[in-house]
C-alpha cells in the first residue's frame, strides 16, 4: 500500500442522542470532539437515529397494508372501462 494516502482508521464513539446510547465502532470519520467511556478516550460523533431508536428495529413501526399496483389501478379506474 502507498504510504500517507489512506484515512486514519480508529475506534469512534457514536452517540445516539434520542436513545442516549453509545456505540464504539471502527471508522475513518474525523472529529475534534472526544468522550471518555470506561476510562478510554474516543473521538465523539453525535447521531440522531440508530438501531437503538429507529422504529423498525425497536418494533414500534406500524405495518401499513398496501394493495398491489394492479389493485390500486383497478380501484382508481373502476367504471371507466369501454362501454358496449
TrEMBL record:
GO biological processes: translation
Keyword check for Methyltransferase: no
Presence of keyword Ribonucleoprotein: yes
GO cellular component terms attached to this protein's record: ribonucleoprotein complex; ribosome
PROSITE patterns according to UniProt: RIBOSOMAL_L31 (PS01143)
Keywords: Ribonucleoprotein, Ribosomal protein
Alphabetized GO MF terms: structural constituent of ribosome
Assembly with partners or alone: Part of the 50S ribosomal subunit.
Alphabetical list of HAMAP family matching this protein: Ribosomal_bL31_2
PANTHER family referenced in this protein's UniProt entry, alphabetically: 50S RIBOSOMAL PROTEIN L31, CHLOROPLASTIC, LARGE RIBOSOMAL SUBUNIT PROTEIN BL31C
Protein name: Large ribosomal subunit protein bL31B
UniProt source species: Pseudoalteromonas ruthenica
Amino acid at each position: 500500500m502507498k504510504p500517507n494516502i489512506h484515512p486514519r482508521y480508529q475506534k469512534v464513539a457514536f452517540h445516539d442522542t434520542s436513545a442516549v446510547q453509545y456505540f464504539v465502532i471502527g471508522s475513518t470519520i474525523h472529529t475534534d470532539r472526544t468522550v471518555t467511556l470506561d476510562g478510554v478516550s474516543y473521538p465523539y460523533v453525535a447521531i440522531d437515529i440508530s438501531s437503538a431508536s429507529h422504529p423498525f428495529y425497536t418494533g414500534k413501526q406500524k405495518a401499513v397494508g398496501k394493495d398491489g399496483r394492479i389493485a390500486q389501478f383497478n380501484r382508481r379506474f373502476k367504471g371507466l372501462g369501454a362501454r358496449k
